[in-house]
UniProtKB/TrEMBL annotation:
Residues 158-180 are annotated as: Disordered. GO terms for molecular function: monooxygenase activity. The keyword Oxidoreductase applies. This is FAD-binding domain-containing protein. Coiled coil: none annotated. The lineage of its organism: Bacteria, Bacillati, Actinomycetota, Actinomycetes, Pseudonocardiales. PANTHER family: FAD DEPENDENT OXIDOREDUCTASE DOMAIN-CONTAINING PROTEIN (PTHR46972:SF1), MONOOXYGENASE ASQM-RELATED (PTHR46972). Keywords: FAD, Flavoprotein, Monooxygenase, Oxidoreductase. The keyword Oxidoreductase applies.
Length: 180
């Protein structure tokens, strides 16, 4: 899942000397365009960026003036016009660029591309097994789901509660596996 949540966690762990491995279904960093803008709030996303030690790189991504907000109706009548106050409270950045600074900040080999997770199970002793689409498996002592909308929750000793949304565990997507 080399995307924002999982990569940020991997980076914060790395800053603290804790190795981790990130398993991603996509075959390479170029497999899919990561478009779209993100507001990174000072009380939320920026705290994570700071914990990752990447504030300087983050500031280099900020698009000046993009905190301006204007709402118009279908006739073009301006309903709300709020200028960028310049405080940097919720600057906008490109999702793909933010992902790139996170990727660049991790040791080589941290991200394992082309590893689509097809399922997980817990052994009940603090270890978890992750199965990939090609049938290979890894066992880890700590497993974190960072697959966005398909977020998965894994709890020790409770193999039937793999999905926060109650879906089919066999369809479960990506994980971040910590090797430490
Ligand atoms: C439309 C939209 C707008 C948003 N705007 C903002 C914003 O302005 N500011 C903000 O802070 N947050 C915003 N968010 C939230 C933010 O995008 C998420 O919090 C963040 O991306 C979650 O990170 P993640 O790593 O868990 O998941 P994602 O970024 O969704 O990445 C999931 C990753 O899992 C991989 N994956 C999927 N299935 C598998 C599988 N089976 N095996 C292995 N890998 C798999 C995918 O390829 C992908 O790389 C927005 C979200 C959306 C949808």
């Amino acid at each position: 899942m080399p995307a924002l949540g999982g990569l940020t966690l991997a980076r914060v762990l790395h800053v603290h000397g804790i190795p981790s491995t990130v398993y991603e279904a996509e075959s390479s960093p170029m497999a899919r365009a990561r478009g779209g803008m993100l507001d990174i709030h000072d009380y939320y996303g920026q705290l994570a960026v700071e914990a990752a030690g990447l504030m300087d790189e983050f500031h280099g991504l900020i698009l000046e003036g993009r905190q301006q907000l204007r709402l118009v109706d279908r006739d073009g009548t301006v309903l709300l016009d709020k200028a960028d106050d310049g405080t940097g409270g919720r600057p906008e950045v490109q999702r793909g660029e933010l992902r790139q600074i996170l990727l660049d900040s991790l040791p080589a080999g941290t991200v394992r591309w082309g590893h689509k997770v097809s399922g997980t199970r817990t052994f009940g002793d603090g270890r978890h097994e992750v199965t990939f689409a090609d049938g290979t498996t890894v066992v880890t002592s700590l497993l974190v789901g960072a697959d966005g909308a398909w977020y998965v929750e894994v709890r020790d000793g409770d193999p039937d509660r793999h999905r926060a949304d109650g879906g089919d565990p066999a369809a479960v997507p990506s994980r971040l596996t910590l090797s430490g």
